[in-house]
Amino acid sequence: MPVTLAVVLPWGRFHATPWDRNVNEGAVEWPPSPWRLLRTLYATWRSRAPELEQGVVAGLLGRLAVPPAYLLPRTSQGHTRHYLPDWTSGAPKWDPAKKEFRLRRTDKVVDAFVVAERGAELRVRWDVDLAAAERGALAVLAGHLGYLGRAESLCEARLLGTDGDAGRPPSLARSAWLRPGDLDGAPSTPVLCPEQPLDLEALTVETATMRTARLLQPAGSRWVEYPTVGEDTGPVPSARPPRRVGTRPVMVRWAISAPANPPVTAAVAMADVLRGACLSQFGTPSSTTLSGKHPDGSPLEGHRHAHYLAHDEDGDGLLDTLYVWAPGGLGPQEVAALAKVVELRRRKGLPPEDYRPCNLGLEGAGPAQVIAPRLVGPSTRWISATPFAPTQHPRRQDTATFVDHQVRLELGRRDLPEPVAVGLVVDGRRRQATEFRRHRIAERRQADMRRAFMVQVTFPVEVPGPIALGALSHFGLGLMVPG
Q1: Reduced to 3 states, what is the DSSP secondary structure of residue 332?
Q2: What is the pLDDT of residues 114-130, one digit of tens each?
Q3: Using CB atoms within 10 A of its CB, is residue 200 exposed (0-12), middle (13-18) or buried (19+)?
Q4: How many Å apart are CA 6 and CA 115, to the nearest integer?
Q5: Residue where a domain terminates, one of 233, 264, 284
Q6: How far is residue 17's CA from residue 57's CA, in Å, rounded to a whole number?
Q7: What is the pTM of this model?
């Protein structure tokens, strides 16, 4: 009774490098080799379904060690090229002309992949008989399968009934089953298959171990020739998602690259310099969203314009990420200008504890929940990442009452729900508010007398972020993170 596995590629891409090829050759293992399929099932068992009996899984993999037949979707091939910093070539070198550190060398990496229609499905059929327990185990493993090939190749899999041709999706309509040895003089493609009987120890060998043994292919494997997929597969529909009309990105994110990253206490200085760099790239007349001002110079209201934020993503006390967040959305010209920001240059008069020049790597632009999930939540409790600075002077109130009133006032201005509790954060392990820079570059340093507090806000329901409150909330102060 044949056994058929259906594998859906929701992104329409399959990334996998053949065993005997280098990643920069641009070769893709298509169809996915039986060797890779069995290794994937084994790894899924060990990591996601350990409750399955070892004897049942071993018997299942042994029966599936025969070369299967494939039913493939319409495909084409594509690739991207990436230039990565090579830290092994030595420390960054100081460039006196540009007054910045430069890496000595970069490495180019080619990422080749097969492109299919989004949601395309491929099917793999083994002409074997499985016991009821083995068939049940295969169904469980297929349900837990998260990716096939490299981790970018997200997939969903399911075990089909006895008729592997039933319910063919449109992407398979023009495909025929590929079987080993069905060549008839046509071009062939070698596919790695396990030898029989299956050697589980050889199947699970690591690449480094295999290379140490100076083997070009794993022990216990063999090459089987399959017909090369020809032009009769037809053109591939566009893999791009349909353009969404009326949606604009609200957030842009950069990674900071510097010999020594700035401390988290320098968030305001880094955000202020970032704003200047963004406005410089946009040019004149200035963008009202990026500048926060009307053409006549009067400030915008409503907090829908750009917030310049600096964040310590990994919690090591050093800033590693910069954001521009505009709740009202960023237009195409603004996004294009932000994409040109690649560095923050040296500024006179700023000590290193307040600001450090750095290179910036653009990481993305889009919705906040995609670009900055750590700032979005949602959560019922939010805690200060940078101090909250009230916009009013205290009157005859104790500090806790004054801060409670000011936070509630700021939340109301941003149409956020009424909190159930607002409290001061007293934790010796956290930085104190007085350690942070609390003034912009153009302001006098006496502005660090500005009162600020580390606060915690609790809402009755989960509230999505980002949340930035108080004075200089558009320049990095008052940023809160889910607690």
Answers
A1: helix
A2: 999 889 999 999 999 99
A3: middle
A4: 17
A5: 233
A6: 26
A7: 0.54
